[in-house]
Amino acid sequence: GAVVSQHPSRVICKSGTSVKIECRSLDFQATTMFWYRQFPKQSLMLMATSNEGSKATYEQGVEKDKFLINHASLTLSTLTVTSAHPEDSSFYICSATRVRGYGYTFGSGTRLTVV
Amino acid sequence: TQLLEQSPQFLSIQEGENLTVYCNSSSVFSSLQWYRQEPGEGPVLLVTVVTGGEVKKLKRLTFQFGDARKDSSLHITAAQPGDTGLYLCAGAEGRGSEKLVFGKGTKLTVNP
User: Fold this and answer.
1) A77 in contact with B at a CB cutoff of 8 Å?
2) Rounded to whole angstroms, what are the CA distances from A59 to A46, A76, B9, B14?
3) Which of A:25-44 have CB within 8 Å of B?
4) How far is residue B89 CA from its own chain's centroid?
5) Is any Cβ of chain A less than 8 angstroms from the Cβ of B7?
6) Omega before A8 cis (within 30°)?
7) Three-state DSSP state, A73
8) B43 C-beta neighbours (distance < 10 Å), count
9) Are B21 and B110 in contact (CB under 8 A)?
10) Does A109 touch chain B (CB under 8 A)?
């Protein structure tokens, strides 16, 4: 159990366009999901906490107007990278937990390349 | 913001050797988790430790949570090439927060 599906796994987009990444909890409901960004050979950096039915909570330094998060249901959160730039190229990962603070299930990640 | 210092950052050993990875903090965590991540994939949960002093074993992996719940260690016995990967520790802040604080990771390479 506790499967999190993330799509797409890879995406290449042109500068200035927007890209949407989906994160779904397949066999459990998640009132809270998390979005991370990971640079090569580095650890995960929390970008924001996605809250079902309310606004996301962004970490310091993360532009909320650039990284739009929508958590419209208990099983789906989306991250939209708007007006993408090459520096937005990164590995984006979502996570959710069935039991608060106990163990998190991560999606398989999305490799975004902005050209 | 709570911080987790993870060491070593890189570790390259021969098959059959033992190793220990450490995670230390000056802060108390409600729980601490260890993950393993393969290139191009999301982290996969190995274990969660909750109680101070707790020890959990997963085959050749032994995880320990410090008595004060500020630090943790991962010990691998007789490492195998299949153990190669990025190991991440993560602490749950608790106090009503579900946020995880990640260490910087340990890139382990086990050479045959």
Assistant:
1) no
2) 7, 20, 25, 40
3) 32, 34, 41-44
4) 4
5) no
6) yes
7) strand
8) 29
9) no
10) yes
How many residue pairs from chains A and B have C-beta atoms closer than 8 A?
59
Task: Report which of B13, B4, B2 is spatially closest to residue B75, judged by C-alpha positions.
Answer: B13
What is the per-residue pLDDT across A1-55, written as a single tens digit (0 to 9) for each? 678 999 999 999 999 999 999 999 998 888 889 999 998 878 899 999 998 888 8
Asked if B15 contacts B110 with a C-beta cutoff of 8 angstroms, the reply is yes
Nearest CA in chain A to B87: A43
**Amino acid symbol at B69:** R
Residue reference for tokens 């950052």: B9
CA pair distance A28, B81, nearest whole angstrom: 34
Q: Where are the beta strands (DSSP E) in A1-109?
A: 4-7, 10-13, 19-25, 32-38, 44-51, 57-58, 67-73, 76-81, 90-97, 104-106
CB contact under 8 A, A101 and B31: yes
User: pLDDT for A92-108, tens place per residue?
Assistant: 999 987 766 567 899 99
**What residues pair up with A93 in beta bridges, in sequence order?**
A36
In angstroms, the CA A86 to CA A115 distance is: 6
